[in-house]
Amino acid sequence: MITERLFNVLTATVAALVVVFLLTPIVVTILVSFTSSTVFTLPPAEWSTRWYARMTTRPELWPSLMLSVEIALISTAISLVLGTLCAIAVVRGRFPGREAIQTFVVSPLMMPGLVIGVAMLQLFREVGLRDAYASLLVAHVVITMPYVMRTVTASLSLFDFSLIDAARTLGCSYPKALLKVMAPVLAPGFLTGALFAFLASMDNYPISIFFTDAWTKTLPIQMLQFLEEQPDPSIAAMSSCLILLTVAVLFVGDRLVGLRRLADF
Amino acid sequence: MGVTAAAAPVGAARTRKPRRPVDLLVLLALPAVGYLGFFFALPLVALLAKSVWTSAGPSIESYARFFGDPFSWQVVGNTLKIATLVTLVTLVLGYPTAFAMARARGIFQILLLVAMILPLSIGVVVKAFSWQIVLRRDGVVNQLLVWSGLTDEPVRFLFTETGLVLGAANIFLPFMVLPIYSVAKMIDPRLTEAAATLGAGPMYRFFRVILPLSMPGVVAGIAFVFSMAISMYVIPTLLIGDRYQTLATITGRSFLFLRNEQLGATTAVILLVIAVAVVLGSARLARGLRRTA
Question: What is the pTM of this model?
Fold first, then answer.
């Protein structure tokens, strides 16, 4: 079938171009970070690591990195607890409105971040919450919860609960059956959800921007400020470090869960 | 994500008798629902309410003023135009890619998966910044164009709509590919073979077999990309600058820099209405597709 073959060649070509297209920004950022000049020419005339040295001398960088990691870790942890409880209720419960609850809990994902940010800002003013750190934390739980809810619901609904009954028949206690039978099956879903929740929190700009002050700035906000104030290749150096970190996290994720599962939307 | 998640089977336990009384399991959902109800739904409702309720009673004055200004129509037009273009570009590139991904094996499949997931995990500021470098006058795109002889002189991309669409399409492309991929890999290849055996031509096979089966993924992908594209803020800030206004950039800037909160609240509500329409519309479409499938 000649047309079939043509179709296959065509899709493969588009896919190959898309791979190049998608990886371009990453490759470009890494190349620029090793330039010796102050401009962003490609390929660099001379290679150097001076921008990595320059990066470490920017005093604002480390506090914002630490703040972002802290907020992301705590908000992901809170979301894991609340999201998992809700997922259990939705999958195992028998009450009306379960589908509505499911849709509601993942809905922050589909709403414009800026609008959520504006709305929260007005609420926080109303209730008198002025602390930047607390506001960020409260907001980031809303950002991370949909990711947890989505993946945990998906893996819970695929889990065969009669396995727990089987384990108990074979002499396991109920908590032990949960731990030995259910936990290993659900672990990949947990990990995937937690990973994307963490990354979404680390990356969030449109909601966080409303809750920062001079001393409390998350990493994306600090980086955009660098870009607007004095753009130089040290920002490419920071970006490259973040890319390296992401690759490492994804590598671990691949070992634990498998890339194919990470791609399951 | 929301659309596919809503479609996920939640009724796995429907046929079995519940182990516990019903009311206890509802309690488990309460913390999450309560939290989002207070910190997510309530603020949005309050935003809506405040925009039509002034101290003097109900009023749509802020909207009347907004839509009375021709500049506002241009802003709404810009927002919808850019979002539509970005969605189209990602759909045209993403649809074949998703199918290639579903068919690919071995190293090619791993490469495709990495190309999707890696950019997805990298911050939007980082990606938009690298597009700033790529699209410069002396950037990679211009070097390629001049080198290949397509243009004699470098073309201006940065701070143009073309540059914005290109950068945004790159950043949102995985959100189009992955939902279509998750549907495409479920399509049984024997279906097209069966259709071919029964005498269906390639066009007929595509439009009557492949396309209808992949529609749920397409709808989900379009909903994601469109709703992200109408509300992007960082990408236009870096790729097109302050002079080009969309609903999202106006919302952000009027709160952060201009201190014109009434304007910001108005544009925020318009953005919210569009986003809700996209979500409801795509959910409705998805439900219709499931029924006919």
Answer: 0.88
